[in-house]
Amino acid sequence: MKRLLSGDLPRSKVLAVILVLVFLGLAAAPFIFPGTRSLNVAAKVAVFILLVASYDLLLGYTGIVSFAHTMFFGIGGYGVGIAMSKLGSGWGSLLLGISISLVVSLAIALAIGLLSLRVRAIFFAMITLAVAAFFQILASQLSDFTGGEDGLTFLLPELLRGRLTAYYVVLAAATVLFLALLRVVNSPFGRVLLSIRENEFRSEAIGYRLVTYRTVANCLAALGATAAGVLYALWLRYTGPDTTLSFNIMIDILLMVVIGGMGTMYGPVLGATLFVVAQNYLQDLMKLASGATSGIPLLPQVLHPDRWLLWLGVLFIVCVYYFPSGIVGRLRR
Question: Alpha-carbon distance 133 to 269, whole Å?
């Protein structure tokens, strides 16, 4: 287990138990939580764990704030969607779409890194925001290729058309790629990223080229997000601007990183799981609570399901106040 986790053990019994429960819950989700909705939630949790972990490589380990992560997420989805819808539902089309999306993401991430990571952090964040907005507009305007606002619906190879098979392919791929990211951050390269985050001037003084390490980190994070986009498109059999390119998704990613704990890799696991489950079930819980308190003045209105976003915001504020270093950071202390 120590080798599998690259020597980065949970260092907390409670955290270890939670991580095991999350993994077992995802692995047995089709049998423990029957139904299409619960399976969709489980698949989204698996995909977003990978997506948020790849962003944590940037924000938590390197100290880089980027708003282009959903762009790479969308490139993965659109690469598969365009290839499968235009070239057919064969394995060749799928592999071609995945390959092209990874190459495009790598090229864009490399260009952004080399040209923009020399500037101050706030300017890099603004540049990535502009690039992401441009890509979103481009995806909406090139309707002949991207389907415009309606997106693209496509068929998968016959082997992946079963929902159970597709789910376990998504889960297995997300797990392997998450472990790969865990290996990256616990390698000598990851230690250099931490030193750059803590004191970039001292890191540069002892011989590390900051732009090179930051650019490589940006490329690795982009590839992780692209892979997550591919998996999400394969699960949905659809890709569109609202499912991958929306700025709301970027905000959700930031919230998941902060809630779980930045710079931990296990933080994205808890953050993504809690946030996605809350997004999908908090409204139902509030409906039950509102009905149960129908005889109490004002409380049913406060707990009305339409106010679920308000309570989600309250939960986020409580998490930030009581867990300033994230849930994982608090548990490890």
Answer: 28
Distance between CA atoms of residues 101 and 220, nearest Å = 14
DSSP 35: S
**In a 10 Å sphere around its CB, with 0-12 CB exposed, 13-18 middle and 19+ buried, how is residue 27 labelled?**
middle
Q: Which residue is listed with tokens 């890099």?
A: 124
Asked if 233 and 43 touch (Cβ cutoff 8 Å), the reply is: no
Which run of H or E residues covers position 9? none
Pairing of strands 238-239, 152-153: antiparallel
Taking the whole predicted model, whether its pTM rises above 0.90 is answered as yes
Give the C-alpha separation, 139 to 5, whole Å.
38
Residue pLDDT, tens place only, 4-29? 898 888 989 999 999 999 999 999 99
**How many other C-beta atoms can be found within 10 angstroms of the C-beta atom of residue 5?**
16
C-alpha to C-alpha distance for 61 and 53, rounded to whole angstroms = 10
Backbone angles phi, psi at 153, to 5 degrees: -110, 140
Token pair, residue 71, equals: 């762009």
Cα–Cα distance, 78 to 226 (Å, whole number): 10
Domain locations along the chain: 13-332
Q: Which of 2-16, 118-132, 226-240, 252-266 has the highest mean pLDDT?
A: 226-240
What is d(CA 326, CA 270) in angstroms, rounded to the nearest whole number? 10
Distance CA 228, CA 206 (A): 36
Q: Which regions of the chain does DSSP assign to beta strands (E)?
A: 152-153, 238-239
Distance CA 24, CA 17 (A): 10
77 and 244 Cβ atoms separated by less than 8 Å: yes
User: Can you name the CATH fold of 13-332?
Assistant: ABC transporter involved in vitamin B12 uptake, BtuC (1.10.3470)
d(CA 59, CA 254): 9
One DSSP character per residue, 149-164 reads: GG-EE-PPPGGG-SHH
Q: How many residues does the chain have?
A: 333
The sign of the torsion formed by the CA atoms of 183, 186, 188, 192 equals positive
